[in-house]
Design goal:
The protein is α+β, with helices and mostly antiparallel strands. The chain has one domain: Histidine kinase-like ATPase, C-terminal domain (Heat Shock Protein 90, 2-Layer Sandwich). It is built from two helices and six strands; from the N terminus they run E-H-E-E-H-E-E-E. The strands form three sheets. Strands 1-3 form a two-stranded antiparallel ribbon. Strands 2-4 form a two-stranded parallel ribbon. A two-stranded antiparallel ribbon has the order 5-6. A hairpin with a 2-residue loop joins strand 5 and strand 6. Helix 1 packs parallel to helix 2. The mean pLDDT is about 90.
């Protein structure tokens, strides 16, 4: 079925978010907006889900933040784990 969602898979959430932030840095250089990722190095970021949908969601949020930022501002993406949940 063409409208069905792909099966869930295990993926590295940090790696996914880092890739989105890295891609967005190129865009951020134009308006003079800095973008940084903050995440703890001692946390396991492997999650199960739809990596492509997660990438699209994170990309949308990051690009909206950049779009509504002014020259000289900073967009900080923070990845934290609280119990079994990431935010």
């Amino acid at each position: 079925e063409s409208n069905s969602l792909p099966d869930e898979e295990y993926f590295d959430l940090y790696g996914l978010v880092d890739a989105v932030v890295s891609d967005a840095r190129y865009e951020a250089q134009i308006p003079g907006v800095e973008i940084v990722l903050q995440a703890s190095s001692d946390v396991e970021y492997t999650v199960k889900g739809n990596a492509e949908l997660m990438r699209r969601a994170v990309d949308n949020i990051v690009r909206n933040a950049l779009r509504f930022s002014s020259h000289g501002q900073r967009v900080t993406v923070v990845l934290t784990r609280i119990d079994q949940l990431f935010q």
